[in-house]
Every structure is written in structure tokens, then in C-alpha cells.
Amino acid sequence: MFDRFESGEQALLVHVDFPVETDREDLSELKLLVSSAGVETLGVITASRNTPSSKFFVGSGKAEEVAAQVAAIGANIVIFNHALSPTQERNLEKLCQCRVLDRTGLILDIFAQRARTHEGKLQVELAQLRHLSTRLVRGWTHLERQKGGIGLRGPGETQLETDRRLIRGRIRNILGRLAKVAKQRDQGRRARLRAEIPTVSLVGYTNAGKSTLFNKLTDSHVYAADQLFATLDPTLRKLQLPDVGDVIFADTVGFIRHLPHDLVAAFKATLKETREADLLLHVIDVTDDRQQENTLEVSHVLTEIEANEVPQLLVYNKIDQHDDITPRIDYDDEGMPLRVWLSAQTGAGVELLEQALTERLRPRMVNLALRLPPALGKLRGRLYTLDSVTDEAVADDGALILQVRMSQVDWQRLCKQYEQEFEPQHGGTLQGYVE
């Protein structure tokens, strides 16, 4: 769509330290991103600045150093650990005579590699097009060409205007297709709501071990690897928990510091699973030196997608790499599980997580003794179907004495379902048979 140098697989990395914490990036994280993209790192150049330069992002002297290093080591792409403006990218490419990519472009490239489902590919393409649309102000000469030829002479439409129009049309097309996918997701979500099946969504910083934990919990085989954004397409699996029943688990894309807004916008439908979950499992890597910053970044993204009000259970993962940490559950002042310490890789503490999930999701239970006449055998069968009868005896008058344990929701539903079948002396409700 515009004249740029061909991309390559041998990269020179550029990292700038800023005094303001919100502007800082992690160099080790950049190296992980580059490795996850399948690119070889040939060298790293670091710099310190108070504010970015409008022309090169770095100073002119440092930009010359970058260009010289590119020529010396034979790199064919320069990757900045920061977001560059279109003008900065153009100036750097002209100086270095090779492709220049910023942090946002790198993350988009990794997402493009990881997308497997139709929905995931559409979401990535939408994010790429939105990012690309801001890059059409570069000013290469062909972008200002007029249409020519017989029947097309005159003011016509510039190539830049044509490109913008084509991108807008493609974006509209993708949004329409994603809307259909979102409608299908909503139908599945409504069905789960009608069945009152709770949903648990795994969230956390990228590479915290969400997919490994997801596989361990649900006995699945979702792709899990020690790399950033190993999971892109959401996966749903069903698991049974004691006193809870069926629970839907959702494995979602990992978050990252300064996650590009184009990606957040494109993945709104996918992230809706997180926003409408009953509980979030916030997986935290205990081995990460930036554990606190990463936790805050996840909270920031959850706020951005309006999921910050969903209850959370913190899961501290990878304790097998710490000799002084053992599997355990930490409780809050009200006796509810707050944190679980485990290792998804070895399985140590996973049973504690299932216990904590049961305690967090378990509905209010009722314990009742019912005295049913023989004529209500149909109701007795229904109670056994719900697996709620804990004991049964027969009274001298032939009545059935049932000890019943079930959720408050199931009990109320049963009362409503059978209210028309009861005799007037019991008030037209199943409550009349409670001893």
C-alpha cells in the first residue's frame, strides 16, 4: 500500500529509559516479544532521554549510531521498544535503510501469527487495518498520484484517498462479520445463563501460565508454551465441581503493559467472556521480578474493558521454582478464599484451587426433611434426579421421609414447578411438606 523496506528476521533492538514510570518499558520483555515473533536479536542499543524526539524518537546522534550499527551487524529490521509516530518511522527507515517496527507493530505481528480461528483472524486484521490507517500520512510520492488515462483525467482521486477509502470499506466489512460472530457468542452466553451455569475466566499477564493451568483443571490440550501470547483464540471447557455442578472455564488472551488500543477494541467480543464472567482467576507469575507492576497492568486493562467489578480469585503460579513457597489457600476476614498458591506445571496445589473455587462459587444450600405421601412419587423421582436426597425412610403411615440437600435456587424452582399439584391444606406450595 506504500513504499517501505522489506521486513526481515535479524533485528537490532532499541530501548530508551525514561524518568517517568508510565513511559518506561521492560527491555527483557521486548526480548521475549521478539523471540515469540520468531525474530533473531543481533544487538541491543539503549539510550536515556527525558522526552522523545519528534524526529527520530531518540536524539540525532543516537539515531546515527543505530544506522551505523545496522550496517555493521547486517540487521534488516530495527525494533523499538516504544510506540513510534508515522513520521518517526519514516525518518528512521530513511536513515537506517531498513524496516523499522515499533512495539505496537511487533505485538500485532505476533497476534497475526497466533490467530487460528476465523474470529481471531478477523480481529487481528481489524486491529492491523486500524493501525495501518494512521500510517497513510507518510507522504511518499506515489500516495499523491492522480488517476490518469482516458476518462480519468482531471482532479480525480489521489492514491492516498483511494487507500483510505479501501481501508474504511474493509474495516466496515470486518466489523459486520464480527458482529455476526458476537451474536453467536451472545446466544451461547444466554443459554448458559438460562441453565445458570457459572463462568470462570482466566486472566493475567502474558506468559503467567494461564493455559497450563487451564489444561490441568479441565484435562484439555490447549497450546501452552513459554512464550508471550501463546494463547490468542479463547477456549471454553466444562468442569464439574462438588456442590456447584457444571462450571464453564474460559482461557483468554494474556494482557501486556501498554496493550495497543487497536487490539483492545478489536478483541471486545472475545473479552466480553471476561466482562460477563461470574469469577476471574487472576493468574500471577511469582517468579517475575515485575510481579507488582504486571498485576497493576492487568487491573488497568480490566478497567478498560469494564471487567474491574467482577470478583477475583488470585492464583500465584510457578511456586515450584521457589523452595520456600508451599501450596496453600489464603482467606480474607470473612473466611472466603482470596489467594491460592500452586504450580500448574507440576500440579501441586491444583486441588486447593478446586476447593477454593467450590467455596467461591458454591450457591447457598438448604437442608430439609420432607414428608411426602405415596401419591407424590413423581416428586421423589425428581429429587433423586437432582441428586439431592441424602437419606430416605418410610413412616408408619406409609409417608416417605426424605432428607434433602440442594441449592437455594433449585429449591425455589422446584417449589414453583410443583405448586399447582399440592392440596389446599398445604397452602399450594412444597413448603407445606417440610417437617
UniProtKB/TrEMBL annotation:
It is found in: Cytoplasm. Mg(2+) binds at residues 211, 231. GTP binds at residues 204-211, 229-233, 251-254, 317-320, 343-345. GO terms for molecular function: GTP binding; GTPase activity; guanosine tetraphosphate binding; metal ion binding; ribosome binding. One of its GO terms (cellular component) is cytoplasm. Coiled coil: none annotated. The keyword Oxidoreductase does not apply. It holds the Pfam family MMR_HSR1. Residues 198-365 form the Hflx-type G domain. It comes from the Bacteria. The keyword Cytoplasm applies. InterPro entries: EFG_III/V, G_HFLX_dom, GTP-bd, GTP-bd_M, GTPase_HflX, GTPase_HflX_N, GTPase_HflX_N_sf, P-loop_NTPase. Its cofactor is Mg(2+). Keywords: Cytoplasm, GTP-binding, Magnesium, Metal-binding, Nucleotide-binding. Belongs to the TRAFAC class OBG-HflX-like GTPase superfamily. HflX GTPase family. NCBIfam families: GTP_HflX (TIGR03156), PRK11058.1 (NF008280). GTPase that associates with the 50S ribosomal subunit and may have a role during protein synthesis or ribosome biogenesis. Monomer. Associates with the 50S ribosomal subunit. This is GTPase HflX. It comes from Pseudidiomarina planktonica.
